[in-house]
Design a protein that fits this description.
The complex is a heterodimer of chains A (about 280) and B (about 120). Chain A is mostly helical and about 280 residues long. Chain A has helices spanning about 5-25, 30-40, 45-70, 75-95, 100-120, 160-175, 180-190, 195-220, 225-250, 250-275; strands at about 140-145, 150-155. The two termini of chain A are about 35 Å apart. In chain B, helix 1 runs antiparallel to helix 3. Chain B has helices at about 5-35, 50-55, 60-90, 90-115. Chain B has 4 helices and no strands. The chains are: A mainly alpha (about 280), B mainly alpha (about 120).
Amino acid sequence: MQPELVQFLIILPLAASAGFFGALFGLGGGIILIPAITLLLGYPVKDAVAASAISVIATSTAAASAYVAERIVNVRLGMTLELATTTGALVGSLVAVYIAPQFLYFIFSAVLVYAGISMARGRRTVSDETVIDLDRAGLNGSYTDPATGRNVIYEVKKLPLGMFGSSIAGLMSGLLGVGGGIIKVPVMNSVMGVPLKAAIATSNFTIGVTAATAAAVYWSHGMIKPEIAAPSAIGVLIGARLGTRVAGKLRSKVLRYGFVIFVAITAVQMVLKGLSMMGVSLW
Amino acid sequence: MVSRSGSGVDRWVGAVLATGVVLSLAILIWGAVLYLLNPGAAEAPRTVLGIFRGAVELNSTATINLGLLVLLSTPVVRIIAAGIAFTLERSYKFALISLGVLSILTISIMIGYISGRS
């Protein structure tokens, strides 16, 4: 087989699994794809990061198109939070050059540990019998959970705090190129009281916008390699679509613990990255 | 009113996203097939005009870049679609929010583009 085909056949299933888990948990899937492309195929990190930005858009688009059709995405909430994330990402990308990144990795992993614990503890969300009579922000939502067939109505709480958390998520994206969905899902779920499935779907909906900025920058720098980006995008688009099928059928509890595992993996990755930037190598 | 259905916005946004998925996937698969049939193709064009010209000439990397361009534009187009849909249903606050997101995104992309040039 020719080497180009071999490379395609390696990237496709990896990208498909990144898209699958990304759609399942409201993430971009970069934590799967970036190590896979750098460690397995030996590409430099910057090529992998550029391909990852494309993959986040692919996950977001494919997952959100299914979740919007199922009415699980809270479009109004998503757009409102995008105001905070895009501003945070803009500020982050502007100040990134002035800040020593190794400390940011440690701060970010500390934020993740906190987010992971709050997600693991879970919280009682407003259930269907609660009548919500006040919706001044116009953000409250409802959806039918495909796993239980129940209609879930929820109230969006603590909007200012949620906006603050989202701007931090955006700031981290701008500074480190990571941290979109993995912060947004806990912010929506633990802080704002949005049920997990709606938080995941809405996160998937919003992450594409932040990633579009990054991808445009990589594009203008000529960093997007077609031979990596094509199989990544194709795999992710298909995998994410499959992920939305499975996500609907899973119980929220399963999604919650799966999400916490992803948070833990990311936190460890961030610590290792910070250590390696300080010259400490573990292997 | 307990839940605002926002059906118009959902429909507009959903249509843009679904179109983006199908169109980019089809072009990317086509480009990937061209690339695998004739690997090591010429330098990929990155300007919009160059991409279109290359794709028409069955240049594999130009075709892949066209698919990526469609994918990259989808989140931007869906913000515009949401803004229009919110305006049509007179949710002016959310139309304004959409415009705000679009503005910040445009500024970010322009700054990134300029820094990429220098």
